[in-house]
Every structure is written in C-alpha cells, then in structure tokens.
Amino acid sequence: MNALRYCGCKHFRLGPLYRVDRLVSGCESIPNRGGSNRWSRLRSLIALTKWVGCALGIAILGWIAPFDFCFAQSPPADPSSKLANRSDSESQSPAESLEQRLKREPIEQLVRQVMRLGDPERGAAIYFDPRLNCILCHELGKRNRRLGPDLTVQRAVDAKFLIRSLLEPSREIHREYQSAIVETNDGRLWNGVLVLNGSTRLILDPARQPADLMVIDKDDIAQWRIARTSSMPEHLVDRLANRGQFLDLIRYLKTIADQGPGRAAELRPDPQSVSHSPSAETDRSAVGDR
User: Which class in CATH covers the domain with range 179-226?
Assistant: First the structure.
C-alpha cells in the first residue's frame, strides 16, 4: 500500500483504495493489550487485508492505465474483415472481358505462351471463321484489292506486334489503309477506306459494301477528315471463345508471316470445316508459363 502511495500514480488518491489504506493504518495503531487473542486476530486480519488490497490495487491500475494513453484510439481493424469486404465488392463488379484480361497481362508472357501453346492449324480455322470475318479485309476481293494488308506476305514481324495489332487495332494504321469520314452538303455521313484523294473527288471503299466504290465530288462535300480509328472492328478479340483461341490465332499469323504464301495455302482449311465457329474448348493457357 505504501508503494502505491509513492508510485506517483494520480489514480491512487482519487480512488477508494486511499480511504481503505487510511482505515488500515488507523487500525494498526491500536495497541496490543496483553496479547489478547481478539486483538491478535484483528492485527492478522489487517495484515492480510493490506496484502490483498495492494495486489488488487496493482491489478486495477494495470487495467486502467492503458486507457489514459490510448482510450481515444480506435482498435485495429481485423484484416480478415477487410479481405471479406474486398471479396464482396469484387464479386459485385462486372466480369472482365477477354480483351481486358489480355491487356492486363505482360506482353512477354503472352509471346511465350503463343510460341509454346498456340497451334497454327487451329488458328487458321479461327482466322477463316465467318463470325470473325478476317478475310473480308485481308483477302483479295472482287476488285482485286484489299481493305487491309496481305497477311500472307513473307516478312519479318514479331509476335508482340501481332498481339498489339489485335488488342489495339488503332494504335498504328498503315497509310495505305486509312479510313476517311465525309459529310456531304445534305448532312449525310460516309466512311470507308480512302482509295483516292483527287483534285475534284474522293473515292472510298466501304467494307460493308465491297462491290461498290463510293465516288464523291468535292463540290458536294461540306467537310471530311482522316479517321483516327482503324477500319478493323473494335473488341474483335471478344468474339473468341477463350484465351486459347487467341494464342492459336496469333500463332497462325506468326507462322504465315515467317513462311509466306506457301505455308498459308497449306494451312487454309476446307470451307466446310469453318462454316461454324470453333467450339469453346478448354483454355489450354490456364496451365501455361506464368
């Protein structure tokens, strides 16, 4: 009890333990008259009370003291609750498209998996699938010209360029295949691949009407400009069934670029076999090189 008096604790003189100590000190001053059993038992009880009171006081002060310093602080958040909240928010967010997932991946990883897991024969079937309609722009049409580059020409091209071309078709547009947007004086809009920019007229080749060229007199044009977007449709990759088909398609394009028209002719599938889109097979890249 004396230790509590002089420990400098501000709680001691404000609490009931101080009054108990004063009472005990007063009882200790009572003289022991003739070794009376009654006073002896009382003094033993007082001594015991002092030790019990001291222990109880230390325990109480040890419990109260931390609140003097951190009572205003909020308890640390449970990490598991944060994880649960994050999982709930992620489960409520819309699912990412195939194109978005591929764009988030390091391109070096995609290149490795194209060369390791991609199959050019399966990729050829995807390339000629009518639902993707790649041949509309990259194969020779009725007028013996293309709306996009000939992909069977043997050339030095890396897989990174092919991947970026599919994921971001408007990133780099060859001058020969730029599109134009034309507004005529009557308020109508026309667009197509720019074939000729003459002194008196513009000639456009629209992909949706491959049998007809559009000839527009410049006197009838209110304004026109070169389009910043490619004629290749946006989000074309999302028409694929899964990531494995993307790897197959890139491997096919890489193969015909490396080996030229002869290899492209070998890989060209029977038209009957590509009358429908390839089935959504298991994504082989799930166990690929991470």
Answer: mainly beta
